[in-house]
Amino acid sequence: MDIRKITDALSVSPQIMPADLPALKTAGFRSIIINRPDAEGADQPGHEEIAAAAAKAGIETRYLPVTPGIVTDETAIAFGAALSDLPGPVLAYCRTGTRSATLWSLAEAQSRPLPDILSATKAAGYDMSGVARRIANGGKTPTDTGDAKYDVVIVGAGAGGIAVAASLRARKPGLEIALIDPADIHYYQPGWTMVGGGIFDAQSTARTMGSLIPDGVHWIKAAVAAFEPKDNAIVLDGCRVVTYDRLVVCPGLKLDWDKVAGLKETLGRNGVTSNYRYDLAPYTWELVQNMRKGRAIFTQPPMPIKCAGAPQKAMYLSGDAWFRKGVLKDIDIQFNNAGGVLFGVKDYVPALESYVQKYDATLNFFHNLIAVDGPAKTAVFEVKAPDTEVRQVEMAFDMMHVCPPQSAPDFIRVSLLADAAGWVDVDQATLRHKTYDNIWSLGDVMNAPNAKTAAAARKQAPVVADNIVADMRGRTAVAQYDGYGSCPLTVERGKIVLAEFGYGGVLRPSFPRWMIDGTKPSRAAWLLKERILPPIYWRAMLKGREWMAKPEKITAASD
User: Fold this and answer.
1) Does residue 250 carry a catalytic annotation?
2) 257-405 has which fold?
């Protein structure tokens, strides 16, 4: 028997036989829903035969036949009612299990988010993307045909989305472009480290979304529920459908606070903070200012994360503040990193290690935060060092800065656009989807092996814009992305190690060494971060002005 668990209450399977009933009883099933009509196959037992064998085993049955390809709203409602009425756990079956999985998906549509439904069925081996519109419509067949259509639809109005919209408008002003994003506020997230270090005010990192949408671009203020790439369609929450000629996917990534037990309940209290949230970055600085002695833990989860240097930036700026106040000698700094190195590009490590020594910080590699008890001020780490048994260690703290685990958003992870790890599957040079040639992706959500930073998105947006316009003109890709990313590592107030690198860790400095040597801390790099990069972000990148971001051309491209 091929039994596939959807939830604790329901499993589905292909056709079962009367002889299977004792084993199903032993497996704990108390009810069976029969979704395969009688006489669908020559060797198929009828529902009465299954019901009789089930009764002998003490299992209840319900017959809800579904003709292949015709799953009605009424049957889905009846399936939900059966799940409520019958003792569980329940096994539902048809010829392959697909109809049963579909009925569950539609029955759960009003109580579960669409991504959760798609994720549960996908894990069981059933693709429900074909009924995503119905699920988004509360499990009922949509009747609205007022779909909107655009030349280019961009999912996500973060740094990458607005930048690529502006770059497209600059190249082809007449394009009908729609940006889909439910957020009211747009944040300059690279500034949050500086907020946590007492350098920027939080308010300076926020602008209203409406003030940043490029002129002539339609803003659809809604969340995406699902993609239908074969039909060039996007399903929004509430079942509105938007269609496109070309699609750009850049919704960022998901901060998965729930993966650490007890973390959400204590964030912003009990000395637990994070510069990865706008409302918490000021609390970081408050904690740093008030701390005079004790233990401060800074955590870094497994990769990938956005701005991989941010967890240690928080440590350096905090250490610098305590050093300047003369209290550093009484503070035990612990940097607990799930990975095995301080920084992934070795050229920058010596400069960083010198600051680790200056702040007398202890580096604990292969330590991944799994639980927090805020009131008790203790944290539990899982230690997975090579060639050793996995163990757990508990550490007390007075202050803890947490970088949360991160993943692709749920609606991306369960979609046909995703690779096996859940990220949008693109060619790392052209940023075009590997399967759907009218889809591109940029920013944190795609699977190219580059650092997930705003500086990377600044370089990617013109590449995507150039290649979309080339595609509209019937040409192959004309621009390529070299993996550039930048991580200004704030090692102390007034000095930064400016890490700039591309694919494979190849150094890609933007300035001559006499101006800024990125492998050494410098005042010039600090001024760049503090004074120059924010205006470049607001006034250039988001306006389609590609200062120091002109795409690298593919010389072999032809008309």
Assistant:
1) no
2) FAD/NAD(P)-binding domain (3.50.50)
Give the residue extent of every domain in the chain.
Answer: 4-136, 149-253+408-553, 257-405
Q: What is the pLDDT of residue 209?
A: 94
CB 451 within 8 A of CB 260: no
Residue 240 has pLDDT above 90, yes or no: no
Two tokens, residue 546: 């590609």
Establish whether 403 is a catalytic residue: no
Helices and strands, number each (H, E), in the chain: 16, 28
User: Token pair for residue 553?
Assistant: 């051309």
C-alpha 195/C-alpha 187 separation (Å) is 12
Q: Tell me, what amino acid is at 504? A: G
Helix, strand or coil for residue 367? Answer: strand
Nearest by Cα to 301 from 369, 399, 360: 369
Average pLDDT, the chain: 92
Q: In 519-542, which positions are buried (b, 16+ CB within 10 angstroms) versus exposed (e)? A: bebbeebbebbbeebbebbeebbb
CATH superfamily of 149-253+408-553: FAD/NAD(P)-binding domain (3.50.50.60)
The pair of structure tokens assigned to 301 is 């989860």
pLDDT band at 42 (very low <50, low <70, confident <90, very high): confident
227-256 in b/e form (b: 16+ CB < 10 A) is bbbeebbbbbeebbbbebbbbbbbbbbbbe
Question: Is residue 559 over pLDDT 60?
Answer: no
Which candidate in 94, 250, 403, 487 is catalytic?
A: 487
Q: What pLDDT does 73 receive?
A: 83
- Measured CA to CA in angstroms, residue 20 lies from 17, 25, 441 at distances of 5, 9, 48
Query: 4-136: CATH homologous superfamily?
Result: Protein tyrosine phosphatase superfamily (3.90.190.10)
* Identified catalytic residue from 94, 250, 307, 403: 307
Smallest CA-to-CA distance from 499 within 298, 308, 305 is with 308
Query: 449, 177, 491: which is closest to 320 by C-alpha?
Result: 491
> Could you give the CA distance from residue 469 to residue 476 in angstroms, rounded to a whole number?
10
Q: Are strands 439-441 and 294-300 parallel, antiparallel or unpaired?
A: unpaired
The answer to whether the 149-253+408-553 and 257-405 domains have the same CATH topology is yes
Which two structure tokens, joined as six digits, stand for 26?
């032993």
Measure the CA angle with vertex 375, ends 373 and 380; round to 5°: 20
Distance CA 293, CA 327 (A): 7
* Distance separating alpha carbons of residues 24 and 86, to the nearest angstrom: 16
Whole-number percent of the chain with pLDDT over 90: 79
> 330, 412, 21, 160: which is closest to 168 by C-alpha?
160
pLDDT band at 340 (very low <50, low <70, confident <90, very high): very high
Region 50-61: what's the mean pLDDT? 93
557 pLDDT band, cuts 50/70/90, is very low
User: Which residues lie across from 63 on neighbouring strands?
Assistant: 34
